[in-house]
């Protein structure tokens, strides 16, 4: 792991029986850096672009193995919890960078405020050794803009991975990887063929805003209804689900779109 950059997408690939299962149970043991499902236990597949990062897990493991009060910090330097702050809205939390809420719970926040993640704020007080734990009392250092290669830029909402890729827009972006950011009936999918920064750049170049592109109506007989991702034709046929649907012939790393 030492020679792999933090933002490399291979750090966000984990095994699971489904996308949500891979997120909820991501661990060093379920890491599948190659993107191929052959690395996973029976019945599981490898999913990429998750909100988990194996680098953070390695830091926490090293910290826990160090033991004692003077060991390394329990929260890694790149842990997404460092960007969680209180506010009356995400914009308020992002602009003020006031109260840090590492647990992600609204109960950590004063005055009826909520805890919001994935802000541009960064809590760094505990990275400097002190004799007494210190709670941040002023605006922490603001993080640099998200790198182009950050996996968060490829996460979008949709009823399936294929639809998330085909109908991606700035509005359907879900950088945290959590499905709570998506409309009802949709989930957040990572490692899509879309890129948030490209969409933003395209939008900025347009003089007049235009609606997000939508797919043309599809009839029941349309061949695209029969296309599914898999490591082989047999795998695609045996595991055809909404999550594996690939109407635009696009699949996660290690899989190919079959059918039609």
Structure description:
With 260 residues, this protein is of the alpha+beta class. The chain contains 6 helices and 8 strands; from the N terminus they run βαβαβαββαβαβαβ. It has helices spanning 19-24, 54-66, 90-96, 161-166, 196-205, 233-238, and strands spanning 14-16, 45-47, 85-87, 114-116, 156-158, 187-189, 228-230, 256-258. The strands form 4 sheets. A two-stranded antiparallel ribbon has the order 1-2. The longest helix is centred in the first third of the chain and has 13 residues, at 54-66. The protein is globular and about 55 Å long. It starts with 13 loop residues before the first strand and ends with a strand.
In short:
With 260 residues, the chain is of the alpha+beta class. It has 6 helices and 8 strands, in the order βαβαβαββαβαβαβ.
How many beta-strand elements? 8
Cα(first) to Cα(last) distance is: 40 Å
Unreliable segments of 5+ consecutive residues? 67-73, 129-144
Q: Rg from C-alpha positions?
A: 20 Å
Based on secondary structure, the structural category is alpha+beta
How much of the sequence lies in strands comes to: 5-15%
List keywords for this structure.
260 residues, alpha+beta, two-stranded antiparallel sheet, 8 strands, 18% helix, 9% strand
